[in-house]
Fold each of these.
Amino acid sequence: GQGVDEPLSATGFRQADAAGSFLSNVKFTHVFSSDLLRAKQTAAAILGKNRFCKDMEIKYDARLRERKYGVAEGKPLADLKAMAKDAGEQCPSFTPSGGETLDEVRERARDFFEFLCQLAVELEQKEHDKAGAPGRSSGTSGEQFVFPWTNHCSEAETSSEGGRSSTVLDANILVVSHGAYMRNWIGYFVSDLNCTLPENLTKSQLSSVSPNTGVSHFIIKLENGNLLKPKITCVCLNQDSHL
């Protein structure tokens, strides 16, 4: 949750370093992280291994924090499940006293995602406003947007023009957050925004919490700068081959 701001464990640091090595050839244009310590340390470890982005500023955002669990924070998961059972409910829909509801978490995710879309539209507009200036992506090597899972992860990459996305991205954004929060964000993508999913993805995989440093990749298209109807394709979900 949010109330116990613990650092990464030794295992957590090893996992973060592994994720950094896995993503070392991906050139990010922006990096955002939850402002909780474990996410900050993960983001720093990822950038520390990156060939292109070692000195990039990490922007911390409270909207990316883990779900708030109120009176259950700092206690074993078994205690949360017992609280839910006593209330006649089940995890994860159960909300402990002082905690956030799933709808409140999803609202945070929606707000942050709309902020990212607005950022991308403004970046594109700035490029158009530069008279005679080449676009950020034109004339640059496609290698800067090479993703390590592209060749083996899913069919979604080809259906979303993934082979060409390396040269037309206006932004390539790394977001470091938390398991329960990300599950709710992905739920928002699927239920509210009709995200296209990999054909081989099962319902249980879709509803599961990502392993630590699991990587999910989404391609977002905003046709004509339309913020109301983003086209979202999930290339891979909770990828963990680096662990």
Amino acid sequence: MGKRVALVLAGCGVFDGSEIHEASATLVHLSRGGAEVKIFAPNIEQRDVVNHLKGSPAEEKRNVLVESARLARGNIQDLAELKASEFDAVIFPGGFGVAKNLCSWAVDGKNCTVNEHVNSTLQAFHSAKKPIGLCCISPVLAAKVFPGCEVTVGQDKNVDGRFPDAETASAIAELGCKHICKNVNESHVDKANKIVTTCAFMCKAPLHEIFDGIGTMVQEVLKLA
């Protein structure tokens, strides 16, 4: 029987929601791994809405659950309804929506607050010793909720100009967590906490390398499950 995995989204679109390629890659790798997936998102208003063509703010309001339903092809539930007892693992793709809607990292950095349902979901899976997968910026959720854990967001220096957000690693360290430097096609497994992370679009890399890195994260999550 396939593993039961919950996928948590943060909207639809890299600048104000979930990164679409990351969400899709995660779903493809989970499908290949024989997993049974259910998708969730918090039923809250987005922090902001970005015109992805112009890269500028749009004067409108959108709902995270409604927007995430685009990625889920309509088959999605309110995150408040997620019960960790019904799943073997949980995975969070990245995108600025994680840092804007699931927590306030985009504005407050290491002093951010985490959405109550995101926090309770992470705590529930961690307490049950069930694996948590995170990619791109979403490892900051674990860094904030689980001091002392190990995560990767790629490199801690802007190596060859490929890691423009390398300072995120320093902020993670300031939270009392250990940042592990990894390449884009790799993931890191914190065995003690069952947290698996990969940098994805935190690295400027060809799409297939990002896809492969997410694949290693999904494979490790399914192994731990």
Amino acid sequence: MGANESLPGDGPIPEMHHYYSKFMRECPSGQLSLHEFKKLVGLQGLDPQGDLYIKRVFDIFDLNQDGFIDFLEFIAAINLVIRGKIDQKLKWYFKLYDADGNGCIDKKELLSIFTAIQAINGHTNMTAEEFTNMIFQKIDVNNDGELTLEEFITGVERDEDLMELITKSFDLSNVIKVIQNGRRHSV
């Protein structure tokens, strides 16, 4: 409601200068390493599963795969999480699950990433196994034990409950809020 309220659209993120100063304060070199990224989002000292998840998130944000997140990659990531359309987010989630990058998600990949997310978020009303089986039961249309990007997006978009579950489970906006607000107060 204030002067910095943004209009819908594709313009630059209004808080760009805020992100930039925070990014440069946390990361004077302009290159955020995995260790610094964990520090920035307050997720160091996780168990191995949690560490694996954060590493996957980092790798996906690291668009040019140079082992660092620069400011443009950082803003692209924030933009996706805050403003991304649902199919962009689903593509992003798919990349997150497809650990070996072969273009398909198998049960093992989904199970390991969901276990890792549970280790961080902690709250869920089903086990990682139940979650994985349910997803495959609902959207693996040809029953080959693998999900293609198309199967994943179509399946999730067709099922509102699944969409809500996936969006909630993999919501990174809490990470973004930490980045936006620092540690002083949580929104």
